[in-house]
Specification:
Blueprint lengths: L48 E5 L4 E4 L7 E5 L16 E6 L11 E3 L17 H7 L4 E3 L9 E3 L2 H8 L18 H11 L4 E5 L6 H20 L3 E3 L26 H38 L4 H44 L6
Parallel strand pairs: 3-4, 3-8, 4-5, 5-6, 6-7, 8-9
Antiparallel strand pairs: 1-2
Helix pairs in contact: 2-3, 3-4, 5-6
Length: 350
Amino acid sequence: MESINEAGIAETPIHTGITPSEVIFPQVEGIPPDLTGPIRWDHPCAAGTYIIDREQAYVGTRDGRPRKKVCIVGYAENSRHLAWYNDPDCEIWGVNQLGRFIPRADRWFQIHTDWDDKTKWAANTNVGQWMADAPIPIYMIQHHQEIPNSIPYPVDRVKQKLGLAGDPFIPGSDLDYFTSTIAFMYALAIAEGFEEIGIYGIDLIIGREYFFEKSCVEFYMGIAHARGIHIHKPANSALLWQSHRYGYQQEPDYGFYGLKNLKARAAQIEKQCTILRDELHKADGALAEAKFIHERLTEPYRTQYGERVLELTKALDTKLNHYFLHDGARQEVQRMFNILEIRARGGQVQ
C-alpha cells in the first residue's frame, strides 16, 4: 500500500520490541502494537527535538543530527499506521488529539484559537493538559505560558522560504494560502529542507476538507515536487488522485449507479415524498377534524359518524405506509450517492 522510497523504507512493518499498549480503540485492532498509540515518549527512534529559539520557532535535535525525512500524520485509519515510526532518520509530526493513535511524535501542531474549548474535542480528554505535559515542540498560533513547549508557528519565515511573501510595493503579490493545519505542516517541512516528506492518515475528502483544505495541501505537495523533494503517500490516498486522465481516458462508467443517475433518481423520489407529505397533512387534518366532530355528536349520529372516523384513520395509515416506503428509498439512494461521491474523490469505501 505504500510506495518504496530510495532509502528502502519497506512496506512490511519493522518490529522494535516495544511493549504493546492495551488496545483501547477499535480502530487499531489488527495493527501491530508498535504502529499504534498512545505515544511513547521514550520511543527508541525519537528524534529528541527541543526548542532552540522560542520566539523565532527554531527547533533542533539533541544529538545534533538533523533528520532528512519527515512523516506528517493525520487521523485516517486506512493509512496512519504506515508512517515510518521505526525509522530513526525520520521525524514524526502529529496534530490535535492524534497522540492516542500513534506510537511516537517529534513535533506537534495545534493551530486553533479555540484550542482550549473543551466542547470541541473528544469526550473525557484534556487537550490543554496533554500539551502542557508533552516534551516536544508544539506549534500554535502563539506561545502560551501554561504550555511550556508551545511556540508560534513561523508563518513569515515559511512564506519567505517558499517564495510566497510578496513585494510590499506590488499589490496582490503576497500569497497567504493556508487552509488547514496539514497545509501549515507541509509548508514548514519544505521550508526546513527535509529531503523526503511522507503524508499518512490524511485524505481530505469530506465536506470542508474536500472543498477548501485538500487543494491547499496538494499545492504544497506540488511545491515540494518542483524542488526535488521526494514526496510519499499511500497508494490508497485521495491526495493527488484522479479517476481518469482527462481527454485520454473515459470517465469511469458505473452503469445505473453513476452520480448523475443517482442524483436524478434522488430528485425523483424527493418529489414523490413531497407529494406524499402534502397528502399526509391533508389526511391528518381531515382525521383531526372528524374526531373533533365525532366527540360532539349525540347518538345515533355519533355511532354513524364513527364509521367516517374509522375510514379516515385507515386512509391516513395507508398514506403513512406509502410515505415511509418512499422515504426509505430516498435514504438508500442518498446513501449510495454519498458512497459513490467519496469514491469519485479517491476515497477508499465500499
